Amino acid sequence: MKKSILLKKIFPLLSFFLSHFSLAQISNKEGISTISIHPSATLFTFGLPQNTSITNGFQQSAFSYNLFPFTALPINTSVNRDGKTELYGLIGSFDLGITYSKLLRNNRIFKTEIGAYYTSSPNSYAIKDQYHYFINGKESSIWQNTLEYSGFSGSVTYTSKSRGRRGLGEVRNYLEVGARTMNFLSQSAKESEDWIANGQGFRIESKVVNRTNNMIFFEIGKTYWRPTNDMRSLNMGIRVGIPLSHFVDNTYSGIINNQVVASTSALENGAYIGFQISYNLPIKTITKSYLERKAEKIYCEMERKVKIKHHFKVNKDELNIELFDHENEDGDIVSVCFNGQYILEKHLLTRKPKLLNLKLRANQKNILTVFANNTGKEGANTTAIRFSINGKKEEIILYADKKESEGISFEL
Fold this sequence. Notes:
Residues 1-24 form the signal peptide. The chain is mainly beta.
């Protein structure tokens, strides 16, 4: 009960913090794909009910299965048959995966993952009414068995569109669906154990019947994508794991006057529901974003060294420029490349300006380069470019020959 109240207090505070702490978006990274390391842990985990059958005649259903909360990191306690308090933990599920992530053009994210995991999962049982059992003043009517298992996992994840800048970054809702192989490692329970005082109590027999199993799981939550090019992210959600079979068959026998009066059984399979937290740490970018790929082609197809000579910040997405021969008209012929495309080809420069209109792209450098188709009669090709930025007139001279060209960078 105390843990339930604590969680009710923690989650609203966590939600308040996430809704008021904000970082930049990365929506303009659409199209990027990465390979990442993905560590994950299950916290605040709760066991799910197991299959239980109660034999007719069992007096007042002496044994009942209760949902018993446990956490992944804090150490838990139980009372043994001698009335001593014992510590146990770590409890929870710990995963390490390799993930392929892609931020799609529709602003949604698709992920696939393969990995390995380890789980330590306790199951707790309570004895009702007159079968409550006390030793040295401590109630020992809760019996606990911790199952340890490991295996491999695979999953796919799909997110919603960006919900904007909230919490720890750019937030999206997500759904993950996957499967696990389950290889039984050990259990904490003894094969047979009697809890009897004054001829009254119970007997527990625990038998491992399967050492391999499989599980399906799904997880819903929120992913907070960091303001970086490599798609780092923090993920928090609720995961439900549903095994397809069971590991352990437990038989409980109620004893009165040293005689077994009835028995019941419970199957343990490792099913759980828990709060999952994970971090996506990219190690390699496979595909650059759509805008980055688009911006990559900033030079036209001509094998020449390009030197960006001038850089300008502009506040409008259109710019008018004038091209003319800087010196005497000596037959200079040029081609003008802007953002990877020719906007003027084999133009003869004269003292009369040639007017061109440039449409600038946001979030990238816009590159204007002048290539020399010849070098005129007086050596290197010289092109004068005149324009106005923020009310200030600029006049730039670009030099070009058959080996090198100069350029200008404009950025919104």
